[in-house]
UniProtKB/TrEMBL annotation:
<keyword id="KW-0804">Transcription</keyword>
<dbReference type="InterPro" id="IPR000847">
    <property type="entry name" value="LysR_HTH_N"/>
</dbReference>
<dbReference type="GO" id="GO:0032993">
    <property type="term" value="C:protein-DNA complex"/>
</dbReference>
<dbReference type="Pfam" id="PF00126">
    <property type="entry name" value="HTH_1"/>
</dbReference>
<dbReference type="GO" id="GO:0003700">
    <property type="term" value="F:DNA-binding transcription factor activity"/>
</dbReference>
<keyword id="KW-0238">DNA-binding</keyword>
<dbReference type="InterPro" id="IPR036388">
    <property type="entry name" value="WH-like_DNA-bd_sf"/>
</dbReference>
<protein>
    <submittedName>
        <fullName>LysR family transcriptional regulator</fullName>
    </submittedName>
</protein>
<feature type="domain" description="HTH lysR-type">
    <location>
        <begin position="1"/>
        <end position="58"/>
    </location>
</feature>
<dbReference type="InterPro" id="IPR036390">
    <property type="entry name" value="WH_DNA-bd_sf"/>
</dbReference>
<dbReference type="GO" id="GO:0003677">
    <property type="term" value="F:DNA binding"/>
</dbReference>
<dbReference type="Pfam" id="PF03466">
    <property type="entry name" value="LysR_substrate"/>
</dbReference>
<keyword id="KW-0805">Transcription regulation</keyword>
<comment type="similarity">
    <text>Belongs to the LysR transcriptional regulatory family.</text>
</comment>
<dbReference type="InterPro" id="IPR005119">
    <property type="entry name" value="LysR_subst-bd"/>
</dbReference>
Length: 299
């Protein structure tokens, strides 16, 4: 049953006049009459009683009109949804992030921008471990992963969108011997106990932490590791060690923790990873907004 014929039927049923309906539909009256006849033949019923002067719906035609109106309304809703999806105005995006990205504000800014541009796109946020993000991105459970590079050999399978680069600070217990310094040399930390992230070597901010220490000529003596910087800073406050952190973590102001600039050229690169396939309109819109949010982050 063709949707076009249902529209023709509805036009005749609402005007009860073949000539007027044909004008509204911008087709010739004989063609309209033929389409109605074909519809009646397909259904095996008469939809109209008609003579040379009058047209009226049969009892079957009246019942059929109720259903046709609902079907045409649903078809129009489907068309509008498809059109809005084409423009990236509707859809659902699964986004994962490592906790440290939250401090920079880039994730929040991207969400706010999406709400402003496309309020009907549903954005689901997942706080996942680094390698879980890569797993779920690869198998399609996630659309986007906010990570700190490097992401290891598996990043070669993904599209990588650099978002922002952040300087690295050292978090010191407030009574630490270097807490009064404006600038700390990495080698001055060689004898300190270190608190670090839980990642393996070669991944994310843990690799940045290691590289800074190695560039300064020493291997950090790591006494505790945590996935969350908030937990790490509580241990710093308790005097359990020092920690290298991305600069936005300094917004986590805990009593007993002093943040100081580190004399290092190393930066922490925040990136968005997604599958290499062409992103749909809603995801393409969100990726653009992520890049714009990153440009607002000071280096």
């Amino acid at each position: 049953m063709e949707l076009k014929r249902l529209r023709y039927f509805a036009a005749v049923a609402e005007t009860l006049h073949f000539s007027r309906a044909a004008e509204l539909l911008h087709i010739a009256q004989p063609a309209l009459s033929q389409q109605i006849q074909l519809l009646e033949k397909e259904l095996g019923v008469l939809l109209f009683d008609r003579d040379r002067r009058h047209v009226k719906l049969t009892a079957v035609g009246r019942l059929f009109l109720v259903e046709v109106r609902q079907l045409l309304a649903q078809a129009e809703r489907a068309r509008l949804v498809a059109e809005r999806a084409r423009r990236g105005e509707v859809g659902q995006i699964e986004v994962a992030h490592v906790g440290s990205v939250d401090y920079s504000g880039v994730l929040a800014r991207s969400v706010i921008a999406l709400r402003r541009e496309a309020p009907d796109v549903v954005l689901n946020l997942h706080d996942l471990e680094f390698e879980s993000q890569l797993d779920q991105l690869a198998d399609g459970r996630l659309d986007v992963a906010f990570l700190r590079l490097p992401a290891g050999e598996r990043a070669a399978e993904m599209a990588v969108l650099p978002i922002c680069r952040e300087s690295v600070l050292v978090a010191l217990p407030s009574g630490h011997r270097l807490a009064e310094r404006e600038l700390v040399e990495p080698e001055e930390l060689a004898e300190d106990a270190f608190l670090a992230t839980t990642l393996r070597e070669g991944l994310g901010f843990f690799q940045t932490q290691l590289q800074i220490c190695r560039d300064a000529g020493f291997e950090p003596r790591i006494v505790s590791r945590s996935r969350h910087f908030a937990a790490m800073m509580s241990l710093v406050a308790a005097g359990q060690g020092v920690a290298l952190v991305p600069s936005p973590v300094s917004r986590l102001a805990l009593p007993g923790v002093t943040y100081r600039r580190l004399n290092s050229d190393q930066r922490s690169q925040v990136a968005v990873l997604h599958r290499r396939e062409e992103p749909g309109p809603a995801l393409a819109r969100y990726l653009r907004l992520c890049a714009e949010a990153g440009r607002a982050v000071p280096a």
